[in-house]
Amino acid sequence: VTGPALHTISFFVGFLLFSSLHIVIGEQVPKTYAIRKPTPVTLALAYPLHWFYLMVYPLNWLLDRANAGILRLLGVRGGPHHEVISEDEISAIVDTSEAHGELEKKTAELIQKAFRFDDQIVRHVMVSWADVDKLRVDDSPEKNESILAKTLHSRYPVLDTEDHVVGILATKDLTSAFLERRDNIWESLGDTLRSPLVVPGSLLTSRLLEQMRASRTHMAIVANEDGTYIGAVTLEDMLEEIVGEIEDEWDSNAVDAPVTPTESGWSVRGQVLLADLESEIGFAAEPAPRVSTIAGFVMNRLGRIPKVGDQFTDDDFVFRVSEIDGRRIVRISISLSEEIRQEIVRPEDGS
């Protein structure tokens, strides 16, 4: 091969050769080696990097001042770009460090959950109002004491005769009243209650945490735009979004799993959020006003009070009410439709 063809071939061969050497030897190998052996690499490069920094500092300072001056003219203020790291960049660093074994999986998950916590809303963290253990001022002392003995919570919302939350009862306040042998404890319950913190379900959990710290309360009542109570959230509920389930000696070990695989599909607790259900089994429900849980979705589709055995099909999934408590859906059975199951089995039969 001679002439122009030789020149073209030589150019491409040289380009591929030096590009490969640059990527492998100039980038990948040093980066991987430094990640695997950070201490010896740091000690070996500390002085050379320090002298190089001093050598290029005047030029770097000049460029930084020019950059800051132009940004100031455009109305943008802040520190130098090299001092600013975005949340996405930190998340990518965490993922890379975990992949290379520099961060334990639990530590990486903790950092990622802390980032997600700032974007969550209270509605996704709260306990549904139907599942909140409540006391009533018009109930007998025996009934309220029975609820306290069975549930053993540290705080309870207290309702009046019109189902309005009149306050939060801290059990330590009630214990103090019993130890002091006060008279007519239940009749004078209002004197023991603490003011309730009522927040909208659309409030960010990070904002609620600030409000709880400012008001020095550990429980908030969650309400809809029309003032209807939809749930309650505690400081522990929010912490569990970051560190996982927190259990003490009073918590039962027999936890009712929210989504349980079965032979035919899944058994799902009624208060599971639709967003969580999508990540668990792949079902994406059509958005509907004031519907955030699978129980609400089923009731919205049925258009009436459900009963055990009610079922319908939606988006290749069959939903069946398997357990109710009064008017409340406790658990729902979900399975793939017959057509989808046949499509899954058919390729196996043909093999």
Write the layout of secondary structure elements.
Blueprint: H1 3-36, H2 38-73, H3 87-99, H4 105-117, E1 127-128, E2 135-136, H5 141-151, E3 155-159, E4 165-170, H6 171-179, E5 197-200, H7 205-215, E6 219-223, E7 229-234, H8 235-243, E8 259-261, E9 265-269, H9 274-281, H10 294-302, E10 311-314, E11 317-325, E12 328-336, H11 338-350
Parallel strand pairs: 2-3, 5-6
Antiparallel strand pairs: 1-7, 3-4, 6-7, 8-9, 9-12, 10-11, 11-12
Helix pairs in contact: 1-2, 3-4, 4-8
In whole angstroms, the N-to-C terminal distance is 52 Å
**How is the largest sheet built, in terms of strand order?**
8-9-12-11-10
**What's the overall average pLDDT, rounded?**
84
Could you give the order of the helices and strands?
Answer: HHHHEEHEEHEHEEHEEHHEEEH
CATH class of the largest domain: Alpha Beta
Major sheet description: 5 strands, antiparallel
Number of domains: 4
Q: What is the overall number of helices?
A: 11
Task: Report the C-alpha radius of gyration, rounded.
Answer: 30 Å
Question: What is the number of beta strands?
Answer: 12
Helix proportion:
40-55%
The CATH superfamily of the largest domain is CBS-domain
CATH fold node name of the largest domain: CBS-domain
- Runs in which pLDDT lies below 50 for 5 or more consecutive residues are none
CATH architecture of the largest domain: Roll
- Helix-strand makeup class: alpha+beta
Strand content: 15-25%
Shape: extended
